[in-house]
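User: I'm putting together a teaching handout on how multi-component assemblies are represented. Below are the sequence lines for each component of a complex, exactly as they appear in our records. Could you produce the 3D structure of the whole assembly as structure tokens, so the students can see both representations side by side? Please keep the chain order the same as the input.
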Amino acid sequence: MKSFKTHHLIWVLFLIVAVLSLTFSVISESPPLTNSERVSNLASDFACPVCDGQSLAESDVPVAKTIRATISTMVDGGSSNEGIRKFLVSKFGEDIDYNPTGDGVTGLVWVIPVAAGIAALFGTVLILFSWMGKERNVKKPAGKISFMLNSSKWIWIALVCTLAIGAGFLVAKTAGSRNSGDAISGEIRMSPRTLLIEAAVAPREEAIEIYNQVLELQPSNAEALAYRGWMLWLGGELENSLSDIESSIIFDPSYPDARAFHAIINFREGKILEASKDLLFLDSLNVSPVIKDLLASSRFRESVSSELARSGDLLLALELVDSGAENDPTNSSLLAHRGWLLAVSGDQQLAELSLISLDMSLDVNPQDPYAIAYKALIEAKIFEKMNSSEKYVEQFKTLPNPPVELVELLKSEGLL
Amino acid sequence: MSPSKTASVVVAIATIFLVGILATSESGVERMRTHLVGEVAPPISGETIDGSYWSLDEVKGRWLLVNFFSTTCIPCVEEHPELLSFSENQPIDTGVRVVSVAFDDNPLSVQAFFEKNGGEWPVLARDTARMSVDWGVVAVPESYLVSPAGFVSAKIVGGVKRNEIENLVLRAKRKSK
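Assistant: Of course. Below is the structure of the complete assembly, with chains in the same order as your input.
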């Protein structure tokens, strides 16, 4: 009797602990989410309406950005998650909701797996009872072979198994809040966003492989197309590279990185006019700091505008420089370059105007090596003011690590 | 009835039921083409690129073409001359009015675009995200024809042609009579 009571007591204690733990975990309050966390969570709960398998949080296409901005405004305005969910579904349909409600036709995604599971169980029980009844009535067969030859049993087993496997797949697909890009069978693949982050730090060959994987999941991913194209170009595959980058531009015309790569490739291929068009278009987009740095550090805009001026299109060259300077008024190098383009035009009036641009550059950055070197050259060679020129040459000599091209230029003109 | 036959009948009925439901439900593409048609036009209001205030209420009682566009979208740039031609040929008092709403675009780029390419109708370019979502815009260009009573009569996905809009307006006017 004693051992019986102890045995039950253990089970009762086990149950109490289990129930209390579950209750506590359900009712315990988690810290309130910030608005930004709520926006991020909600964006992850909805599919981008025009992307293949990307959530609003993962996608950078204009519609995803627009909806994210609206979610943010609604969250800041005090809307509840449920209110925002209903609003978005009313505007873009149930298809975009990763966690659809249980009513209407959409409710089928929750009902079908359960119904299929119950049907499979019910079918199995029915068949087993049917066989047991037959086994009782029919004389036991001679051996295993006769059972295997009874094909109708195997057909039913196959049907029930198929139904059960189908139900399992449906449950795997619909149960819980699985993220976009996750596989149906439970193999959770990496999301395109994670892959893109991984590709950004991978060596070239490996990065191309990762971009291939992203494009398998999302053939229209503008970022993967642009960067795969860039990697291919770095490896010397011009045709494939251009095909990828141009596809990226078609899928998302406002993706600045693809435009920047297109501009660089065009320039390297001698298509100066096309490169300048790309750059002018790029100025109307929201360019990432990485791309800005890439273009600025390579003095790409200066190179393109110099080529334009050399081919006789000084106006377009100036438009390109002005457009860049308008976007980045603190870029003293561009202002200096503007002065240089005017000075070497061969026109005395423009040469005088060049001094204004150079002064503006020095106002922004008194240590700009280009402005100092160009001032020295222009004062000496165009206006023949040697004293003024020498002053700038002396200032240039004090600069730490001046660009080699400027040193060579001043030396070739006999100023250093 | 034997258990296997009962199971077969149940499975058959369930299959027919599911096929029926799925076949009659609206597809995503169909929804995209007809979204908002027949419904009250969602609100549009805000500052235009010339600095004035514009609201949908200002054109109540007039047919209106609402055009969502972006200066970075090639079909939008291509459709602009058609919109221009359509707008310029509308009678001042009774013609269809046009309003453009920029979709994820830079207001300065929009202003420059209209200065360069023309277009005298109101253009909203600031804080347009909520309006785009209210109208369920997913990919520009998208245009909506709004009746004088304020209901959406038709939706055009993709670039518009002047004669297509004119035909659409004629059909909508006939239908509303």
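A couple of points students might notice: Chain B has a mean pLDDT of 86. Chain B touches chain A through 35 residues (CB under 8 Å).
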